[in-house]
Amino acid sequence: MNNLFEERYAKEIVSRIDNLRPDSQRKWGEMNAAQMLAHCSGFQDLAMGRGAASRSLLGIFVGRFAKPVFYNDKPLPHNMSTIPEIRITGEKDFDNEKERLIDKIKTFQQSGPEACTQRPHPFFGKLSAEEWGKGVYKHLDHHLRQFGV
C-alpha cells in the first residue's frame, strides 16, 4: 500500500495535483476543485497534529473494527461521509489552496513518521504513523480520482 512518507508517492501526488485545474469537473460529490484542495489540506492538518476533530459516536463504537477495511489497496468508495470539521462549503481560491496543500504534503513527507500526530483519527481512533501515512495517501488519491487526475 502506498505511503505518503515515501518520497516517490509524495512526488506522485504533487504531480497529480499539478495536473488539476480550477475548472476540473468532479465525477462525484459536491465540492469543486478548490474546495477539494482545502478539504485535503484540512485532513493534512489532522495528520500533522495541527488541527483537531472530535470523535464521532459511531467512530467510537465501530471505527476500530472498520479500520482494516479502510487501510487496504482498494480505492475508497465514492460519496463517503466526511469529517464535519473539514467539510468545505464556502468559496476558496484555487491557486492558494493548491499551494497550501502541496506545501503540507512536502512537510508531512519530509518530517517523517516521528512528526505524525498522536491524536486519534475522528472515526478510526488511534492510528500508527504508518497508518496515517497510508491513509493520507489513500485520501488524496481518492479526491484526485474524483477530479480525474
Q: What can you tell me about this protein's structure?
A:
By secondary structure, the chain is mostly helical. The chain has one domain: Four Helix Bundle (Hemerythrin (Met), subunit A). It contains five helices and no strands. The longest helix is centred in the last third of the chain and has 18 residues, at 94-111. The protein is globular and about 40 Å long. It starts with 6 loop residues before the first helix and ends with a helix. The mean pLDDT is 93.
| Rg calculated over all Cα atoms | 14 Å
Total strand segments: 0
Strand fraction band? under 5%
Shape: globular
Helical/strand content category:
mainly alpha
What oligomeric state do these chains adopt? single chain
CATH class assignment: Mainly Alpha
Number of structural domains: 1
Residue stretches low in confidence (pLDDT < 50, at least 5 long) are none
* Portion in helices: 40-55%
SSE ordering: HHHHH
Under CATH, the topology can be stated as Four Helix Bundle (Hemerythrin (Met), subunit A)
The CATH architecture assignment turns out to be Up-down Bundle
Biggest sheet overview: none
Q: What's the average pLDDT?
A: 93
What distance separates the N and C termini? 19 Å
The number of distinct helices, counting runs of at least 4 residues, comes to 5
